[in-house]
Design brief:
Layout: H1 3-18, H2 25-32, H3 36-42, H4 46-71, H5 78-92, H6 94-103, H7 110-135, H8 143-162, H9 170-187, H10 195-202, H11 211-224, H12 228-242, H13 248-259, H14 265-277
Helix pairs in contact: 1-2, 1-6, 4-5, 4-7, 5-8, 5-9, 7-8, 8-9, 10-14, 11-12, 11-14, 12-13, 13-14
């Protein structure tokens, strides 16, 4: 085992017990039986160590899911194999999986959050490819919801063996989740995650950072919108983005006009973000 591998292994054990913030480089080096100088020869900082661990974990699981989905698209057992692969991977890397589940929702490290979201987008894409391969046009309207359900199943059920150390029959668990997923695919008819909202969620860190981007999105939506109330609301909001003058109550009402329309939900989120960033939030 190389020194870098030793550091990552021992750091993972400490992070799982104490979390990122509470674990010091001193504790890591003591656990490894090395000097701080040896640590800094491998990593410039604790943050760099965490980033490399995150890369290692997600690159491995992404490679495995890529290979499975791309090589088994006509396999009737693809979904079962996917669930089993993911749970096996979480069990194999139990300590780091625990860290991710406990730490990521509360992390203040923006670089870490952005990297994690990048990998999450890739995971979602693999699951979407699998969903489209298995269910085809039957789930065209609800496929993004199905992706979120599958990700939710993976997270919640993995906690049974990660945190509660319950003895599980993995084959039975995967069969049960395949049945649940099939039922959702067959009987769900009301979509919530639209393609537009999914696009916004994937690009939330990039969308709406400039006035030009917000105006371009408003103009595009207005051109495609048939509802006269929403079109008028977008026209008034466009003017307000250019030169804020509307009372908060009026702005709030206009944004809600956009939000209640099925095709306007994601744009309403962009507007929320924009007005909040300019100190004129409608909420």
């Amino acid at each position: 085992m190389s020194k870098k591998q030793l550091i990552m292994e021992k750091a993972t054990e400490l992070f799982a017990k104490q979390g990122f913030e509470a674990t010091s480089i001193q504790q890591i080096t003591e656990q490894c039986g090395i000097s701080k100088g040896s640590f800094y020869l491998s990593f410039k900082s604790k943050d760099e160590l965490i980033m490399e661990m995150l890369d290692h974990f997600f690159m491995e699981v992404t490679a495995e899911t890529d290979q499975l989905v791309n090589s088994s698209k006509n396999d009737a057992n693809l979904l079962f194999k996917f669930y089993k692969l993911m749970f096996h991977f979480f069990a194999k890397h139990a300590d780091f999986a625990k860290v991710l589940i406990k730490e990521m929702p509360h992390s203040l490290n923006q670089e870490l959050l952005i990297k994690s979201r990048t990998y999450d987008v890739q995971t979602s894409k693999n699951i979407l490819d699998m969903v489209e391969s298995i269910y085809g046009e039957k789930v065209e309207a609800t496929k993004f919801d199905l992706v979120y359900c599958i990700k939710g199943f993976l997270r919640i059920y993995s906690e049974l063996f990660l945190f509660y150390e319950v003895e599980l029959d993995m084959d039975l668990l995967c069969q049960s989740l395949v049945e649940k997923t099939d039922s959702l695919a067959k009987h769900s008819n009301i979509p919530f995650i639209t393609e537009e909202l999914e696009f916004y969620l994937k690009n939330a860190d990039k969308i709406g950072d400039s006035k030009e981007e917000v105006l371009a999105l408003i103009n595009k939506q207005a051109e495609e919108m048939e509802d006269p109330v929403v079109r008028k609301s977008l026209e008034m909001l466009r003017k307000d983005v250019l030169e804020p003058s509307l009372p908060l109550a009026v702005r709030r009402g206009l944004v809600e006009n956009v939000r209640v329309h099925a095709d306007g939900k994601w744009l309403a989120l962009v507007l929320d973000k924009w007005f909040e960033g300019t100190g004129t939030a409608p909420h």
